[in-house]
Design brief:
The protein has about 110 residues and is mostly helical. Helix content is about 80%, strand content about 0%. Helix 1 packs antiparallel against helix 3, helix 1 packs parallel to helix 5 and helix 5 packs antiparallel against helix 6.
């Protein structure tokens, strides 16, 4: 149950960050007034996902030591890298992929400890 909450917090945070990127992409090259910014559905989705992720994170912290739980948020780096590469067609070099692999190894090692 705890790892499901942790995974949910990671996924919601990741979705929130993707929605932030889409909101900014929507404003690119435009002079958006404050009203237009507030009407951007991507912005509201980002806030909802990040807020929900925060609530799940609080539940995770009730169940896991912060020294184990917080490094597991490294999964966000993995998820965002994958989304950047495949959703936004961003380039990812070999060193970045190596970093992703090392993060995954660290998360697995910490997960076995918990």
């Amino acid at each position: 149950m705890t790892f499901a909450l942790l995974l949910g917090a990671c996924l919601l945070t990741c979705l929130g960050q993707i929605a932030q990127k889409l909101a900014v992409e929507h404003w690119r090259g435009r002079t958006a007034g404050f009203g237009a910014v507030l009407r951007n559905h991507w912005l509201w989705l980002a806030l909802a996902c990040l807020g929900s992720g925060l609530l799940l994170w609080l539940l995770v912290l009730q169940r896991l030591d912060v020294g184990i739980a917080y490094p597991m948020l490294g999964l966000n780096f993995v998820l965002i890298t994958l989304c950047g590469r495949f959703l936004f067609k961003e380039s990812v070099d070999g060193r970045h992929w190596l970093g992703v692999l090392l993060i995954l190894i660290g998360v697995v090692l910490l997960g076995r400890q918990a």
